[in-house]
Design goal:
alpha+beta; 5 strands; 65 residues
Length: 65
């Protein structure tokens, strides 16, 4: 199962979409935009999971596709 994650940078000023928790795949200005991209990737690569972190780097939500 592929795993995607949306995580903030250290200052929570930008958001990263990561694939398999390696180097950031893409950078976004807003969390919502990063989550939308993560959902698109996860849905296109089923079975997969999207883990969304908040600005304090705590798990906020896990979506399974």
């Amino acid at each position: 199962m592929k795993e995607y994650s949306v995580v903030p940078n250290k200052d929570a000023t930008t958001w990263f979409l990561k694939i398999e928790d390696v180097a950031p795949y893409e950078e976004f200005d807003k969390q919502t935009t990063a989550v939308e991209a993560g959902i698109r990737f996860a849905e296109a690569n089923k079975p997969s999971r999207l883990i969304i972190f908040d600005e304090t780097n705590e798990k906020q939500e896990i979506k399974t596709f």
